[in-house]
Amino acid sequence: MPHQTPHFHFVDELSKASRKLRTLFDARVKQLGLTLARARTLMLLDRREVLSQKELAEELEIETPTMVRLLDGLEKQGFIERRGVEGDRRVKQVVMTAQGAELAKDVNHLAQELRAEFLRDINDKDLLKTIDVLRAVNLRLGDLIERG
Amino acid sequence: MPHQTPHFHFVDELSKASRKLRTLFDARVKQLGLTLARARTLMLLDRREVLSQKELAEELEIETPTMVRLLDGLEKQGFIERRGVEGDRRVKQVVMTAQGAELAKDVNHLAQELRAEFLRDINDKDLLKTIDVLRAVNLRLGDLIERG
DNA sequence: TGATAATAGTTAGCATGCTACTCATTATAT
DNA sequence: ATATAATGAGTAGCATGCTAACTATTATCA
Known about the structure:
Strand content of chain A: 5-15%
Largest interface: A-B, 56 and 56 residues
Oligomer: homodimer
Number of helices of chain A: 6
Radius of gyration of chain A: 18 Å
């Protein structure tokens, strides 16, 4: 087997980490009726209270059609509501129901525990450096995607 | 907006990087009729020549049903073939067609260029450190997933 | 003002990830 | 030797990601 470059390994490990993270998180929040993507949406609403669908999508860096379906699910589950906004009839604001807000607290707690669990052996300095690198990569990827 | 922890940012940036990477790569290999997942499969076959479906799935760290459908697509496109193996009729070995092997070379080249492009500003030391961290995280995530 | 642009949300269609299950075959153990 | 386990491939069903379109509304500009 030919030697693989660091560039290759970066992409490889990154893809694998993301899949594993989703798998583990999904398994942990399944009992709550949630998934990673839905939990991410609830946790964002928990921090920001009220956002339009567009703003939600932008914050999570997913496309609006993906957000639409995520919200369809959360709405059907009774965790969020869509509200028309006066002054612009195109926009819908998204707010958590009481049940959703309750759930968001549990999910936040659970997510925090899970993160601590799998990042247990990573020291602070390395973690911060890794976050820096990922941020830089994301900026660059965003640029390259925009450019076509 | 409440302050967010490094643990949170790690997960956030990781998820975003993985999605962006797939989006960018998919756009770049679209003209070749490929996607990131299919390209990854071809590139692995290019390095290892012959593998069973099970081995392919293990190497890429995806589940076998996911691999089945990936191979269905690649087979329909004429890039790979499935072959029965003598001595164990459960196993199917996967080999690239001539066309697939040709394509794999192009894809390898393209992937290498793309990686260099978006990792341009990351220095070697930081990149290696990041890979180390991702590897450690992956090991731990694997453990936690296994444990249930 | 009235045509044209842009924007927010949506739908449709595809690919990829998962789990839970089945089927055929091989390995193991009594 | 035969019942039982384990293994490899596949199917079904769901969730989430994308792009390409469409609809309704609002903004722009000539």
